[in-house]
Amino acid sequence: MTTSYLSPAQIAKVLGVHPETVGTWIRTGYLPAVNLSPSKRRACWRISEDELAKWVANRSAA
Predict the structure, then answer these.
(1) What mean pLDDT comes out for the span 30-41?
(2) Model-level pTM?
């Protein structure tokens, strides 16, 4: 099974928010994501579709 990862822009589109909002959520730890970039200068944040679905479900339940 291959895990599919979404970029902040893709996540923003799914959630109906601005990409900068997603970036803020990631940087503050509100939205869990992994940095796939080997460089610390420019992050390459991604979140798996499964993790995003869990995050959305947890927010809906709260």
Answers:
(1) 88
(2) 0.84
